[in-house]
């Protein structure tokens, strides 16, 4: 691939993908420079199937232990950086993603200066009925929680694994903070917000077959909220305290202190009123309500600062029939809301 002499590597984390990995490989466009397949200690014939591919672009890395999708991606990221790839994409091995859209990902990165581009399955409403109901409900809930933790309020469908990142921004991320499991995409968004990365989101339909997802809903409900909370605390510390002592940190600290203090005082006054049977005085009620009101006001201001301080987020529509050829530079049309349509 050649767009301003920048190369493209595709990483495919594979676990028990013997039935689908060949189909995914055959759809990879010819302009991809490297295809990095990370066999994450598969128990089936994935390694054997990949070894039959006679393509110099294919690089297979075998894990001696299962490290999860995030662990496989970290291995792939390191290899892509070693190869000096400029654009680095992730495509899952379950054959639900169409590699033919890769040129659009590259165009969004190159023409609009995006550091990270991801697919969004919820842009095509006619495709939603094909999504399993558990996945649909789970993705909506996780999207809202991830918005809070990551600070990217304009980004949706965080669990979508069809992504592309530039070499420049990838080198700025702390690989030790990237989750090794299914929380991989969420942790990436949290880390990207810390470095104020510019996000691009492209509406792409997903394809669902008869495959059974190894992601368990009960495990997600137990682990993801906890990880999102830890990610939120880490992001606030890194972005607003350690790297830059922002007014956000002052507003957040004061807001929490006032709300907690007012709640404690009000609870104590309410308890004493119930215990003694004597109604609380107006002054006592005001002393409880005033810090809570001030606290909520400070928290809302902190929320506004956090939402505005996130890196830019652009939305792209993939339905334009005029997208032809590979990596042709054409003008883009953006309205005042920064909702762009790639030509």
Overview of the structural elements:
With 343 residues, this protein is an alpha/beta fold. Helix 5 packs parallel to helix 8. The protein contains 10 helices and 10 strands. It has a 10-stranded mixed beta sheet, with helices on both faces. The protein is elongated and about 85 Å long. The protein starts with 7 loop residues before the first strand and ends with a strand. The longest helix is centred in the last third of the chain and has 30 residues.
Q: Key features?
A:
alpha/beta; 343 residues; 10-stranded mixed β-sheet; 10 helices
Q: What are the SSEs and their pairings?
A:
Blueprint lengths: L7 E7 L6 H6 L7 E6 L6 H6 L6 E5 L5 H15 L4 E4 L11 H11 L3 E5 L12 H18 L12 E4 H4 L13 H11 L4 E5 L13 H26 L4 H30 L5 H28 L3 E5 L15 E2 L4 E3 L2
For the secondary structure, the number of strands is 10
Fraction in helix: 40-55%
Averaged pLDDT, please?
84
Strand order of the largest sheet: 3-2-1-4-6-5-7-8-10-9
Q: Give the structural class.
A: alpha/beta
Spans with pLDDT under 50 lasting ≥5 residues? 320-343
Summarize the structure.
The chain is α/β, with parallel strands linked by helices and 343 residues long.
């Amino acid at each position: 691939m050649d767009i301003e002499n920048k190369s493209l590597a595709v990483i495919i984390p594979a676990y028990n993908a013997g039935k689908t990995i060949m189909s995914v490989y055959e759809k990879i466009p010819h302009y991809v420079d490297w295809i990095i397949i990370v066999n994450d200690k598969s128990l089936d014939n994935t390694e054997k199937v990949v070894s039959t591919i006679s393509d110099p672009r294919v690089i297979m890395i075998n894990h001696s232990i299962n490290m999860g999708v995030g662990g496989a991606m970290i291995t792939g990221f390191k290899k892509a950086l070693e190869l000096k790839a400029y654009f680095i994409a992730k495509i899952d091995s379950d054959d639900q993603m169409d590699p033919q859209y890769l040129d659009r990902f590259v165009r969004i990165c190159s023409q609009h200066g995006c550091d990270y581009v991801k697919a969004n399955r919820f842009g095509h409403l006619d495709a939603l009925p094909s999504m399993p109901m558990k996945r649909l409900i789970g993705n909506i809930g996780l999207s809202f929680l991830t918005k809070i933790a990551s600070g990217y309020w304009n980004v949706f469908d965080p669990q979508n694994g069809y992504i592309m990142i530039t070499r420049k921004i990838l080198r700025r991320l702390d690989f030790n903070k990237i989750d090794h499991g299914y929380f991989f995409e969420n942790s990436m968004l949290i880390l990207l917000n810390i470095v104020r990365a510019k996000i691009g989101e492209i509406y792409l339909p997903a394809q669902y077959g008869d495959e059974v997802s190894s992601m368990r809903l009960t495990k997600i409900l137990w682990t993801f909220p906890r990880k999102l909370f830890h990610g939120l605390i880490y992001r606030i510390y890194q972005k607003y305290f350690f790297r830059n002592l922002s007014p956000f940190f002052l507003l957040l600290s004061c807001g929490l202190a006032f709300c907690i203090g007012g709640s404690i005082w009000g609870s104590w006054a309410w308890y004493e009123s119930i215990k003694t049977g004597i109604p609380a005085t107006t002054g006592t009620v005001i002393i409880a309500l005033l810090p809570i009101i001030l606290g909520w006001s400070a928290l809302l201001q902190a929320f506004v600062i956090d939402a505005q301080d996130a890196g830019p987020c652009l939305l792209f529509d993939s339905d334009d029939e005029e997208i032809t050829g590979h990596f042709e530079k054409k003008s883009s049309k953006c309205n005042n809301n920064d909702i762009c349509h790639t030509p």
